[in-house]
Amino acid sequence: MMGLLPLHRREYRVGFPAVSGVDPQYRCCWCGKASTTRYDYDKHLRTHTGEKPFVCPICPFRTGDRSSLSKHAGGSLDVGRDFRGGANPMFVVEGVEVLPCPLCGRLLHTRSRFRSHLEYCRRAANPQFACQTCHKSFAYRKDLEKHVRTHTGERPYPCHYCTYRFADRSSLVKHRRRHHPAATS
Q1: Where would I find the C2H2-type domain in this sequence (predicted)?
Q2: Residue partners of 43: CB distance under 8 A and separation at least 6
Q3: Predicted pLDDT at 31
Q4: Above 70 in pLDDT, residue 27?
Q5: 99 vs 91: CA distance, rounded Å
Q6: What is the pTM of this model?
C-alpha cells in the first residue's frame, strides 16, 4: 500500500477546476475534497488508500496521521521520565519507557493511561453490576448498559449518512470513518 500515494499524486495532479484559495493539486480525484495544505491532502488520501505509515513503538497500532498516533499515546510518550507514587517502575521496550499494570501485565504508554487502567483493573476484580439475563458481571454501569443491548437488540446510535444503526457509539464512529470518510474529515 505504501506505493499507492505517490502514484496517486502523479496521476491526478492536474485537471481539476480551481477553487478559491485552494491549489488544484490538492483536490482529491476520488471524492473531490479540496485541501489547502499538502499535509491535509496527504492525510485525506490515506483515507482512500488505507496507508498507515505512523506506527506505535510499543504496540501494533498503526494510523494514517500523526495526530491520531499522538492521541493513541495519550499526548506524549513518557520517555526518559521517572515514575513516582509507589507504582511499578517504568521499563524500556524498544527504546521507549512503559509502565506495566501489576494486575494484568498490560503495558501502558503514559502515566495518565496507567492510572486510569489500574483503576479499571481494580474495579474489574470486584464487579458490582450484573446482567439480569445472563448474570455476566461488569465493573461499570455503562458497560452493563452496553452489554444489555446484546440481549434486547436495541441500536440507539443511527448513522446520519445511511440506514445503519449501532448498539454503541464507538461502533458508529468506526463505521463513519470507514464508510463515510469524506463526511467525517
Answers
A1: 26-53, 129-156, 157-179
A2: 64, 65
A3: 81
A4: yes
A5: 7
A6: 0.42
CATH architecture, domain 129-184:
2-Layer Sandwich (3.30)
Name the residue ranges covered by the structural domains of the chain: 4-51, 72-124, 129-184
Environment class of 185 (CB within 10 Å of its CB; exposed 0-12, middle 13-18, buried 19+): middle
- On average, the pLDDT of the chain sits at 75
Widest CA span of the chain, in angstroms? Answer: 62
Place of cell 474529515: 185
> Any residues with CB less than 8 A from the CB of 107 and at least 6 apart, and which?
58, 59, 93, 98, 99, 100, 101
Nearest to 176 by CA among 151, 80, 165, 21: 165
Report strand pairing: 96-100 vs 91-93: antiparallel
In terms of DSSP H, where are the helices of the chain? 4-11, 38-49, 66-72, 111-124, 141-152, 169-179, 181-184
Residue among 119, 117, 84 at smallest CA distance from 100:
117
Q: Collect all residues with Cβ–Cβ distance below 8 Å to 79 and sequence separation of at least 6.
A: 95, 96, 97
CB-neighbour burial class of residue 16 (10 A; exposed 0-12, middle 13-18, buried 19+): middle
Q: Around Cβ 21, how many Cβ atoms within 10 Å?
A: 7
Query: Per the structure block, which three cell numbers stand in for 177?
Result: 470513518
What percent of the chain shows pLDDT beyond 90? 26
